[in-house]
Amino acid sequence: MLKKQRTARSANCPYVKQRMSGSASHPYVKLSAGLTVLLQKASHRLYALNFAQRLTIILLLFTLVPLISIQQIMMHLYERHIITETSQSTLSIVRANNNVVTSVLDGVESASNLMLSNEFYYDIFSRLEDLSVGDCLRYDRQIPVEMAKAFSLQDDVYKAYLFTGKWIFNTNSSIIPVTEEGFHRAGYDQIARDAKGEPCWITGFDYGKSIGSDFLLDKESYAYQYPLTMVREMDFQRHHYSGTYQKLPAGTEKPILVVHILEQDIRKLYQNSISFQGTLYLIINRDGTVISSDNERFSTGSDWPDLLGAESDLQDVSRFFGSSGYLTCRLDGKDFLLCYDSLKDSRFLSLAFVPRDILLKSTVSAIRQIQFFTIGALIICAFVVAAFLSRTITQPIQYLINASLRVAGGDFSANTPVPKGGDFKVLTESFNHMEREISRLILENYEISLREKESQLAALSMQINPHFLYNTLNTINLLAIQNDDEETSDLIVDLSEMLQYTFKSFAEKMPLSEEIGWVSNYLHIMAKRYDNVFRTQMDIDENLMDALVPKLMLQPLVENSILHGFSHTRENGLLSITISQKEDQILFLIKDNGRGMTKEQLANYMLLSHPQGHVGLSNVRQRLCLLYGENYQFQIDSSPGEGTQVSILIPLELTFPETRSSSR
């Protein structure tokens, strides 16, 4: 009661009403209701379609949905395959570029190695302190010739010279300015001395800024602004007659070889090697300085961390040195494929950024066009196939529908067109067969009903005043008794009882006891007719006397044994009738020891027992079929000289004695 009061109060509360109305107008509720209405309309329209239209839609769905799904999966796998293949091919290009750059740098170092063993330089610099100004001028004209020979194969060398505190050999201020002050300010001498005769590459620096040239600093750009410079302390040597090499005397100043390679000459070695538009290619040193680049995004001389930002996952570029590979990264909000490879003993690192959208656009766009064209063609094919299949399925169904309507109207002509092959052929043939069977059964039932009417008319005719027959037989019986003819009297009594059994009831089945009584009377009459020709032996289970059996079933069988089995017998004929129970059935055996039949005669006899043949046997078999359907057995066995046996097996049906007495 308390809950009801609270509910009523809450319902009357304006705040609750406001919340309830607000929830009803919630956009999600409206969306859900709208979707429900759309689904209901779609389902109603789907149900309104005929079978062919629904089948076409189902076939299209089952064709297109898997096709589009497979296309998307294959496209995804193909994109991954393209990225993998392109990554490997791009990485191979980067490695090839590194090999070219490395060969250029190694060529410069190899040329410097050849200069160390040149006795021309040893003869000059071993006595450098004793050279006059004139000697220096003279050698300054000779040394460039020898250096040109040493670097003749190095087309990428922009400038090479030898620096000493006394003279700078092979300088030309018109090509690249060199001064002693600028040389020391750039630190070339200290770097070379620290390397102790090994070549050392200086990269990523502004040349004008490094030598302190106000003239160059005022320029926005110039060709040799970011050169790749090799410095090396040259301890020249000569071959001694003792078989050893003799280096410069101790205390003699060792000249420093300086070789400049322009950044644009290095850039030409890799520029446009990767064909994808928007590719960013650069080379950095271990300090993270860009020493060469083909784009403005990573300008030469810039520091790597400053170009990426603090939050980039590529800040720690040192992890790429000494390795080679590729990965996917983000740069400026876009996805890139990054291929990297180390060069020159891992002192430098080449990086190539390839945009993923450009990477896939050139190949995937063409593939997508092909796939869209293929899908369009498959859709058209799917429509054609769906229409064909729906027609193949629905047309036989329509034929069967029309046939059903025809049968419902009473037309059993069985003329439904049969399709070619498949289940519908079997179904249509079965339907036509069913029509023919129904028509046959209707005809048979009509004929049976006519026969029943004829039989009833005949029976009614036979029932006309049966007491007249009984009275007549009684009169004859009295005359026989008056003449002391007991044998004739007995025969007349038997015949009277047989007629009474025949006319008293039109039931199809009678108790076995009454059937046996009728057969006994018949056998008594026939025994008098065929005096001493045969005798009868009966073996009947007493428990079966109340069982119901077809009326007048045994008489035709007994009659055939007497008339045909004993036709050539004069005496010692034996007719045995055995009736026993076999589980829930009754077994009748009518056997005689007459002349019997061969197999051919038996076949003809069975043919006579066909409904169109022998009347007695035909009547028995037809009645058994009508009464029991397939639940009976009828068999005839015969051998020449041994006799004939008829076996009948029917279901056991018991009645009660009071029923039997009432039927009498």
Give a topology summary:
Layout: H1 2-12, H2 14-24, H3 27-48, H4 51-116, H5 119-125, H6 133-150, E1 157-163, E2 168-169, H7 180-186, H8 188-195, E3 200-202, H9 207-211, H10 214-217, E4 228-233, E5 237-239, E6 245-247, E7 256-261, H11 263-270, E8 280-285, E9 290-293, H12 304-308, E10 324-331, E11 334-343, E12 348-355, H13 356-408, H14 422-462, H15 466-482, H16 486-503, E13 509-511, H17 512-529, E14 534-540, E15 548-550, H18 554-565, E16 573-582, E17 585-592, H19 599-608, H20 615-628, E18 633-639, E19 643-651, H21 657-663
Parallel strand pairs: 14-16
Antiparallel strand pairs: 1-2, 1-7, 3-4, 4-7, 5-6, 8-9, 8-12, 10-11, 11-12, 13-15, 16-17, 17-19, 18-19
Helix pairs in contact: 4-13, 13-14, 15-16, 16-17, 17-18
Gist?
The protein has 664 residues and is an alpha+beta fold. The protein has helices at residues 2-12, 14-24, 27-48, 51-116, 119-125, 133-150, 180-186, 188-195, 207-211, 214-217, 263-270, 304-308, 356-408, 422-462, 466-482, 486-503, 512-529, 554-565, 599-608, 615-628, 657-663, and strands at residues 157-163, 168-169, 200-202, 228-233, 237-239, 245-247, 256-261, 280-285, 290-293, 324-331, 334-343, 348-355, 509-511, 534-540, 548-550, 573-582, 585-592, 633-639, 643-651. α4 (51-116) packs antiparallel against α13 and α15 (466-482) packs antiparallel against α16 (486-503).
